[in-house]
Amino acid sequence: MKIRDVDKVCIVDIAGKTVSQSDLIELKRLFKKEASKRRIGINLEKVLNIEHEFLNFLQESSFKQKLSLFNANNEVYLLLFVSKTDRYVNIYLNENDFYEDKHCIVYRRLKLLKSA
Prior knowledge:
This protein is α/β, with parallel strands linked by helices. It has four helices and six strands; from the N terminus they run ββαβαβαβαβ. The mean pLDDT is 88.
């Protein structure tokens, strides 16, 4: 895992194919230290699979500050969508969109209601 400080954002590059326990511990430390100071983005470019512990971390951290994810592959996007992670995490297509805070991917869940 590599941490880059760029202006008012902190970018975390996950190096492995999954978010390991050691990565998760480092993310928790970083979040406690930097959450109120900067926006934190997690680069999932090399990640092929995410596990329940990582999703729990994202949900728990959203009470203090919304984290951002970007550069995820299609399978990870699908898993994020199915687990409804977009409710408590900002998802961007790439690093530039995260840095500029533009073009956040929003999933809309529409429900059909019966008329009375």
